[in-house]
Amino acid sequence: MSTPARKRLMRDFKRLMQDPPAGISGAPQDNNIMSWNAVIFGPDDTPWDGGTFKLTLQFTEDYPNKPPTVRFVSRMFHPNIYADGSICLDILQNQWSPIYDVAAILTSIQLFPK
Fold it and tell me: Which of 10, 27, 88, 111 is catalytic?
């Protein structure tokens, strides 16, 4: 069944494969377009330089009108990341907009303030 959320996620995935942002990768897990694994490489000249950080993204049928649930699987020490891996980021809460795609979400996380 192809719902608007699933169609949008397929488009996000295609865009991510064709033009991946530097230091970011992501893909649906186990052929489930609603559940993704992602990897962010630590940006240069930051305390995370050289690090490899794994995340999960869980989408609902309300995407892109509602943000996904994003969590770090890798242990991460950052003031915006809680012990359970959940992330405090304005675009994942009150500043969400349907214009954000998976690449934009992951880039925003990668560019967290130092």
Answer: 88
Helix, strand, coil content of the chain in percent (nearest 5): 25, 25, 50
Residue 2 region, left (φ>0) first, then alpha (ψ -120 to 50), else beta?
beta
Predicted local confidence at residue 50, as pLDDT: 86
On the question of pLDDT at 45 being above 90, the answer is: no
Question: What's the pTM value of the predicted model, to 2 decimals?
Answer: 0.92
- SS3 for 101? coil
Let me know if 86 is a catalytic residue: no
Dist CA 100 CA 16 (whole Å) = 13
Please, which pLDDT band fits residue 29 given cuts at 50, 70 and 90?
very high
10 pLDDT more than 90: yes
* Region class of 91: left (phi > 0), else alpha (psi between -120 and 50), else beta: alpha
Q: Which two three-digit tokens encode residue 55?
A: 């995340």
Tell how far CA 50 is from the center of its chain.
19
How distant is the alpha carbon of residue 28 from its chain centre?
11
